[in-house]
Amino acid sequence: MTRQVVDKFELTRDQHLEFTARTKSHLSNMLQLLSLGQQKQHQLGTKVHDKMGLRAYTDGDSTTITGHLATTMMDLEYGVYATTTKQVQTVAAILHSHQYDDAGLLDLQQSHTIEDPFQFVGVKYVALARKGMFAKPHQIVYLEATGSLHDDGVARLYQMVEYVDLVHVYTAKATWSQAIRPVCSTLTLFEADPNDIKSVRVFSRARYSKDTPSPLHQMHQPPAYWEYVLSLASLAVSRRLVDATSLVQHWVPNSSCKTCSVCDAGFKALRPKHHCRSCGEMMCHACSIPIQSPTVMHKYCTKCVLRSRELRGNDKVELPRKQSVRRPVPSATSSSSHDGEFLRSIRETTKHLNTPSPSPSPHHQQQHVLTPPPPVEHKQLKALEKITDSIAHQESLIVSMREALDRQKRFAAASNSITSTAGTADSYTADELLDTLPSEQHRFEYLDT
């Protein structure tokens, strides 16, 4: 894979037909595999991860993710579909989060039709941010095909992605059709859950080899690829918020807000506060969700995120006006199970935005099992609150002590000034005092009594 910037990459007719044929072949194989039911598990490899409704399998040459996503088919269609450079940048920024540097559309072969509003065939690119001072961004060019399937009366969506070996493209002496060689490919199939309209079945497989460049290889290992597929559940919600983000009409001043607008927790020394980029209200760190946009990372409160989730497809998020009254929103514990599951998934996929994790070394790339964080007990939370209150009390005592010391210093300085003035006359003798007067105009006599 080359690191040079690619400004233009157009598919020829033969390349388009060959890519379409490969897509149909992969789709046929995947549908045949899904028809096996439970018998297909031994063909997926070893299960290395099972969390939040998604299971990850690997056999050394591929990674397979299967399970359920807390979203709808309409939201997936809106979130994944992108036919302009601006749309591609928004989707890539949300999915790649802190690794995102740039993205764009290079070639558009097919777009949506009345029969298939999810149809797309074209060429896109994404540039990953450099991971070191002397490293350069990695630009990845890939072919993408999306569409709808209605076999056996079941609604399905698919997305096929082939990453192009640019080194082979620019160094090969053969024709363009022979020069394009995919070094990595992914195929994702979405299927509506007949038992739950707010749940979607997903089956995604990534194939790679020893010739796959390191950035692509890391992106499609079980831990990273599991997180990528999980982020598809919140992609539409995040995209609606980013698309609607503009100058907030009402920005709550810091001085006028003492509690979080979501959980009503008071702001203290160890509880930082942030402004929601959608409604402008103040929120604590626990009630904020970071979402990466193409230009900057924004933070949104959970009530605006849940409000965006109530919309469908490309519905617009309405920004509240200044006269709007703050409405309390129930927390995730008291809301529906779907909202709670959704908030857990979006927090899982955005946890790296505040503290990006370093890239794994080749030695650790073989360790695919994710270690879940230890659960936080109620006693630990109470102890943390007591420590926070104690620190705040100590800070107030320190401020009072500093003010008392300043008053003592000012009083001591004033006392020293008075003492030095009174002691000035005592430091002279009578003769020395007489010498300070004009001798010719004044005469003094000493009388003995």
TrEMBL record:
This is FYVE-type domain-containing protein. It comes from Aphanomyces astaci (Crayfish plague agent). The keyword Zinc applies. Residues 338-351 have a biased composition (Basic and acidic residues). SMART domains: FYVE. One of its GO terms (molecular function) is zinc ion binding. The keyword Repeat does not apply. It comes from the Eukaryota. Residues 254-309 form the FYVE-type domain. PANTHER family: FYVE-FINGER-CONTAINING RAB5 EFFECTOR PROTEIN RABENOSYN-5-RELATED (PTHR13510), RABENOSYN-5 (PTHR13510:SF44). Residues 315-375 are annotated as: Disordered. Pfam families: FYVE. Keywords: Metal-binding, Zinc, Zinc-finger. Gene3D superfamilies: Zinc/RING finger domain, C3HC4 (zinc finger).
